[in-house]
Amino acid sequence: MSFGYITRRFRFCASHRYWVSNWTEEENQAMFGSRTSKYGHGHNYILDVTLKGEVNPVTGMVINLSEVKRIIGAVVKRFDHRFLNVDLPWFSDLQPTAENVARVFWNLIEPGLPAGVFLHRVRLYTTESVFAEFFGDEGEAVFSKRFSFSATHRLQSDSLTEKENRDVYGKCNNEHGHGHNYEVIVSVQQLIDAVTGMTMPLKELEKKVRDFLNTELQGKRLDMEVAYFRNKPATSENLISFIREGLEQKLGPCLYRIKLKETNNNFFETGELFDGQ
After folding, report:
1. Which domain holds residue 167?
2. Beta strands, E only, the chain
3. Which of 8, 109, 110, 177 would bridge 152 by S-S if both were Cys, CB 3.0 to 4.6 A apart?
């Protein structure tokens, strides 16, 4: 069966608090930091819901977007301008992390879909740089964080002549190099912890990724200072492979996907390829 995919974006504002009742205040602070405040903290959430189904030969649609807006909008309305821990029953004993909120959205949206239309993914952004994805597996979720680093490079292949290098790489073959403010989105997939509600604590992910980026890439001339590129061009295709190899050593098998943004027009990806955007 061949499916078509559509994604609809929704927005809502809400607050929440992270707190494990049988932990001490020190233990909660160590895990959650300032997010333990009894008054909560807030987000302008963005919710992307991806549906899949066969394309109707008459309408040319998987599902009418007005119906998507009606079905999912009614669910989102229940979250808007709420203190999740207090106002919504699902979080009375469930940590309202991005992973768990995405899972609750899945469980609320799925029963309301018409026959032949299925949920593919729920993606919830807490900030522009942090988001979680849920695919229907009750135990697992994907958690992602956007990082940045600056580096320079020259695109040059030792297997090509000087003329061939200029022909292939154009201005990127400038012997003095050129630079980018790279962005990399690192995604991990793990079981959602029953206590913390997290796949991986944000602080842990940040430390491991930032340690690698700062040590190996930040401020470097890639083709001259990074050994990986001594025998291969410092293209973004090769760069993302280098990043993946390095982060696999830091994060292990939970590393799910890496996306690399070189410029506003050039993006590269390794891992789970379907983006749904």
Report:
1. 139-277
2. 4-16, 41-53, 82-83, 117-125, 130-134, 140-153, 178-191, 255-261, 267-271
3. 177
CA atoms within 13 A on the CB side of 114: 10
- 229-260: per-residue pLDDT in tens? 999 999 999 999 999 999 999 999 999 999 99
Domain boundary (111, 136, 161) is at 136
Domain count for the chain, please give it: 2
Confidence (pLDDT) at 138:
81
Please report, for residues 27, 169, 219, 228, 234, the alpha-carbon distance to residue 175 in angstroms, rounded to integers and kept in the order given: 53, 11, 18, 19, 13
**Cα separation values, 8 from 5, 23, 65, 98, Å:** 10, 39, 8, 18
Last residue of a domain, one of 110, 136, 162: 136
Instruction: Give dist(CA 131, CA 117) in Å, integer.
Output: 24
The backbone region for 108, taken as left when phi is positive above 0, alpha when psi lies in -120 to 50, beta otherwise, is: alpha
**What is the domain-level CATH number for residue 116?**
3.30.479.10
Distance in angstroms (rounded) separating the CA atoms of residues 166 and 277:
35
Question: Is the domain of 81 the same as that of 152?
Answer: no
Is the whole-model pTM more than 0.90? yes
Query: pLDDT band for position 23 (50/70/90)?
Result: very high
CB 112 within 8 A of CB 71: yes
Tokens matching residue 115: 């026959």
Q: Do 120 and 18 belong to one domain?
A: yes
